[in-house]
Amino acid sequence: MSRQIWWEELPWDYASKARDFLKPGVRVLDLSPEEGAYPFGREPAEAVRWNGTGPLPFADGSFDLVLCRFGPLPLEEAARVLAAGGFVVAEQVGGSDSWEPGPLDFNLENQLPRVEAAGFRVMWRQQAYPLGPGGRRGHRFIFIAKKRAV
User: Fold this and answer.
1) Element at 21 (helix H, strand E)
2) Which residues, 6+ apart, have CB-to-CB distance to 11 below 8 Å?
3) CB 146 within 8 Å of CB 20
4) Is residue 38 scored above 80 in pLDDT?
5) CA distance linking residue 71 with residue 141, whole number of Å
6) Dihedral of CA 27/32/37/39: which sign?
7) Could you say which of 47, 78, 88, 119 would form a disulfide bridge with 28 (CB–CB 3.0 to 4.6 Å)?
């Protein structure tokens, strides 16, 4: 299945936002369901892709960065596997998307309290409704959150 090309650009670049967090020695968990969602030319030595279901099969504090693009993000599990001070970078398809509709309440406004309740501090966020082919509107949102110290 090929991804639809939007006529309007998003006001952010997911790959660039995620790359900002890659430093030598960073342990990365990518929960994105799509092949090729990992936004880097070469993966760091400690990068793991996981698109399974259920609890994440990793020890507490195993990662410094969790990435998730267009897939389910188990917030409590992400908080568990992140080391203190670790980050999540997540880009999601919102519920009012014309191409991939979901629950209408799945949007940035409703996700932010869930992110915070899972133990994160939201550092940056943005939401957009890009115009796509046929005049249909997309719905995307992104956030960067830091795991609070215990």
Assistant:
1) none
2) 126, 128
3) no
4) no
5) 12
6) negative
7) 47
| Cα–Cα distance, 116 to 125 (Å, whole number) | 13
State both tokens at 16.
């660039």
Coil/strand/helix, residue 66: strand
Who has greater pLDDT, 137 or 38? Answer: 137
Nearest to 56 by CA among 95, 17, 30: 30
In SS3 terms, 83-137 reads as EEEEEEEEEEECCCCCCCCCCCCCCHHHHHHHHHHCCEEEEEEEEECCECHHHCE
Give residue 148's pLDDT: 95
| C-alpha to C-alpha distances, 6 to 14, 23, 130, nearest whole angstrom | 15, 31, 7
